[in-house]
């Protein structure tokens, strides 16, 4: 049974930090690129950060220098360390696995609220 389960979302004050986790099961995630997306109310889902199988990372411009994506291929867990949070970071955050050919596996999402 393939699963991606996010956790770590919370309500924090601006300037605070959070770490999101995404535990994967039922497949071999270290073979795939993975990413974090977010969707704010009334907005389209957007990519936040991605990480390839070798650990190379890319970031959306607004989070560069504040967010860090990482993966633990032993524990099959994806992380997103978020520092210096801003109100505009408020969104539901999703982890996703790029299976290739336009196909993705998605988690259920975790809410991050910054006030």
Question: How does this model look, in words?
Answer:
By secondary structure, this protein is mostly beta strands. The protein has strands at 3-7, 11-12, 18-25, 33-39, 46-51, 57-59, 67-72, 77-82, 91-100, 103-106, 110-114. The strands form 2 sheets. Strands 2, 4, 5, 6, 9, 10 and 11 form a 7-stranded mixed β-sheet that branches. β4 and β5 (46-51) form a beta hairpin. The relative contact order is 0.31.
Could you outline the blueprint of secondary structure elements for this entry?
Layout: E1 3-7, E2 11-12, E3 18-25, E4 33-39, E5 46-51, E6 57-59, E7 67-72, E8 77-82, E9 91-100, E10 103-106, E11 110-114
Parallel strand pairs: 2-11
Antiparallel strand pairs: 1-3, 3-8, 4-5, 4-9, 5-6, 7-8, 9-10, 9-11
Anisotropy-based shape: globular
First-to-last CA distance: 37 Å
Major sheet attributes: 7 strands, mixed
**N-to-C SSE string, H for helix and E for strand:** EEEEEEEEEEE
Quick recap:
The chain has 115 residues and is mainly β.
Which short descriptors sum up this protein?
11 strands, mainly beta, single chain
